[in-house]
Amino acid sequence: MARDRLGLRPRQQYRELGVELLLGARVAEIDIERRDIVLESGRRASWDLLCIATGSSARRLAGFDDAIYLRELPDAEHLRTILERREPLRVVGAGFIGCEVAAAARGRGCDVTVFEALAQPMQRVLGAELGGYLAAVHRGHGVDLRLGEAPSPDLERPVVVGVGSAPRTELAVAAGIEVDEGILVDELGRTSVADVYAAGDATRFWSPLFEERIRVEHFQTAQRQGFAVGRVMAGMAAAFAEAPWFWSEQYDLNVQYAGTGLAWDETVTRGTFGKPPFSVFYLRRGSMIAVAGINDHHTVARARRVMEARAAVSRDHLADPAFDLRRALR
Ligand SMILES: Cc1cc2nc3c(=O)[nH]c(=O)nc-3n(C[C@H](O)[C@H](O)[C@H](O)COP(=O)(O)OP(=O)(O)OC[C@H]3O[C@@H](n4cnc5c(N)ncnc54)[C@H](O)[C@@H]3O)c2cc1C
Fold it and tell me: What is the mean pLDDT of residues 56-79?
């Protein structure tokens, strides 16, 4: 995609919305006492209410300083060049980014080797069973998948490292705002400091739905939580209580997930496991806390609504593809 088409909105729209957009203006410090921020240029700007939405940065791997860490546009452009040249590619990490890169590279005809420390791809979120299914899918498409094997850091072949992200919390920490694996906020986006809010990947927020603090690294949640916090800051209190949701395209599979990777004690499969469309529900003490669907968009969308409504559905109904989950909402 052309660079000039990547902006979220045209510049003009910010002006129309009354938003002053300062690009290339890195914030160096938040001064809580004086209620202003200091830019790297030295310029100060005052605030009445402040929202920190600094996102996250790619976790680095020791010995892999020259690898491609997919985060910024130049990283994606670098990777595209490699794929266009059909260079053999090594990928470290079989999470969502690693698996998507592998699928895209195989689609371009590159030789791909993937190293994953855990026993299956995407195991932390999807579990070993569904991870095992996806491992077979990748191998079936010609990926050399090395599970439980550490890669050697020799970089004679291009390497993409996708081993998770870390919240960007430096500004918050320096300002004395409470941080613990993310800027801690409540369901309204309020930090530990009055009039300072935070939203998106940078936060770990209280979820009234899951009744614990969660951190999510997906754009849909960053966007929806961002809207909610913006409304709160504008005086329209509205707690953010949605179930995180994201999807991933790998080969001819659309993998969708709703939930937040919390530990489960039981799974229920809808459809025939391994034959798309099918879905896996993750239950904790009998309640659905997540769902993953393979080419099964409707099930995931409906299950998400069921979770958000905290509606009860029996295991038999979950397992039965003929049972429309929307019936649980009536
Ligand atoms: C390669 C890749 C693929 C992804 N694919 C998906 C996907 O398919 N689906 C999905 O749901 N999610 C995906 N994600 C995750 C998604 O991009 C994030 O969840 C989302 O962008 C988070 O939004 P955010 O606004 O919180 O943070 P960001 O989008 O990271 O935005 C934070 C912004 O703050 C700026 N900033 C940071 N520090 C400062 C400072 N001191 N001063 C001024 N500005 C600062 C940054 O430059 C950045 O522009 C992907 C992420 C990556 C890296």
Answer: 93
* Three-class SS state of 224: helix
DSSP lists the bridge partners of residue 46 as 36
Tell me the pLDDT of the chain averaged across its residues.
95
DSSP states of 158-186? -EEE---EEE--HHHHHTT--BSSSEEE-
Judge if 78 and 151 occupy the same domain. Answer: yes
The CATH number for 306's domain is 3.30.390.30
Place of tokens 């009354």: 18
How distant, in Å, are the alpha carbons of 21, 112, 163, 225 from that of 62? 36, 22, 12, 33
Is the CB–ligand 1 distance for residue 71 below 6 Å?
yes
Question: What is the domain range of residue 294?
Answer: 263-329
Sheet of strand 212-214: strand arrangement: 183-185, 203-207, 212-214
Within this chain, do residues 150 and 102 fall inside the same structural domain, yes or no?
A: yes
Residue 48 to residue 32: CA distance in whole angstroms: 10
**Tens of pLDDT, residues 106-151:** 999 999 999 999 999 999 999 999 999 999 999 999 999 999 988 8
Residue 297 lies in a domain: yes
Ligand 1 pocket: which of 201, 240, 242 to mutate (most atoms <8 Å of CB)?
201
Task: Using the mean position of ligand 1's atoms as its centre, give its distance from the Cα of residue 217 in Å.
Answer: 8
pLDDT of residue 154: 67
Please count the structural domains in the chain: 3
pLDDT, position 238: 82
What residues form DSSP beta bridges with 283?
266, 288
Task: Note whether residue 119 is domain-resident.
Answer: yes
